[in-house]
Amino acid sequence: MKIAWLNGNPNPKFGGTEIHTVQMVKELQREGVDVILLTAKNSYVDRHTQGVKKYYISFPNSLALMSTYRLMRVLKEEKPDFLVANNGKEYANALISAKLSGTRVVFFRHMERMKEWTVRKFIFPYVDFFFAVSHQVKNNLIEEGVDPKRIKVIYNTVDEERFFWREKPKDSVNFLFVGKLDEGKGVFDLLEAFLMLLEKKDSLRCFFVGEGRMKKKLEKFVRERDLEDRVLFTGYVQNVERYYQFSHVCVVPSKETEAFPRVAVEALSCGCALVVSDVGGIKEAVVDGFNGCVFKGGDVKDLYEKMLIALENWESFSKNSLHLFKEKFSRDKIVRGLVSTLGIIQA
């Protein structure tokens, strides 16, 4: 099988689709799949992929006609079995290039909904297959008119050489947030709930890993209450896996719906108990009462109560998170599921 993987975002900054591309290309190669990578030169994807055949094609917008023509030429030359496109603004270009070159095209949907109605109406009906990063995204695709038979849920995979379990410290319990420090991510709700927990047990710590518009406001809130030794802001870190490995409970308190954040799988792979909101696809990483808890998004009291449950049960939740990861989210399950599905389509 030969796959052309497209991620032509020239922006030097990176997001979930770029991380996903780097990891999937690596895992597909490990699985023995012949992969060619179509990416923007000096992009995050380009800088973080080695040992793969590359063609440099940039898609700064959805009307990159010359890039579309170049992509078509590459597909005609390489003759891959599938073109996999990841970013919404590349979809139209990918479909046109694939159809003109006689290549099957697969869209990977990382976002909950496709905002552009023109793409839903004029592009989606002609796509051969869709991969959705959660059942939430799959259901949205069905609502947008895609035949359920053309959709398969393929969760995010993580680098298991980086994200793995290490024995948790026993002297105190650490809570963890990883992501943008923005209002919609529920960071103030988490902070308020954590302060309530400190009234029960004052030896707890909470780490906020990431940057965002609300960082200074959060730091001021903590400083005014003299809690700098209990609540710590790390900023962006390269070795985020270390924080998962010494944290006991990872909290994803989003108030705005999300497709399926990588944070949830990274936390599972490192054996963290999970406390997540009920919005979007996040809750698919939790079996309530088994490896964590689901709370009502935006409800601080409910968040506090679920964090308290996780605090009291973190050891069993941690063990169960590892079990759930191996059963549902391991690289073998994800990558082999993707390859198997493409094999069925190919046949």
Characterise this structure.
It is built from 13 helices and 13 strands. The longest helix is centred in the C-terminal third of the chain and has 16 residues, at 314-329. The chain is elongated, with a radius of gyration of 21 Å. It has helices at residues 16-30, 44-47, 65-78, 91-101, 117-122, 135-143, 187-198, 215-224, 241-246, 262-269, 300-312, 314-329, 331-346, and strands spanning 2-7, 34-39, 53-56, 82-85, 104-109, 129-132, 151-153, 174-178, 205-209, 231-235, 249-252, 273-277, 292-295. The mean pLDDT is 92. A seven-stranded parallel sheet has the order 3-2-1-4-5-6-7, sandwiched between helices. A six-stranded parallel sheet has the order 10-9-8-11-12-13, sandwiched between helices. α3 crosses α4. It starts with a strand and ends with a helix. The chain is an alpha/beta fold.
Q: Taking Cα atoms only, what radius of gyration do you get, to the nearest Å?
A: 21 Å
Q: Ranges with pLDDT <50 over ≥5 residues?
A: none
Q: For the report, how would you describe the main beta sheet? A: 7 strands, parallel
Treating each run of at least 4 consecutive H or I residues as one helix, how many helices?
13
Q: Strand pairing plus helix content: what structural class?
A: alpha/beta
Helical content band: 40-55%
Question: Which term fits the overall shape?
Answer: elongated
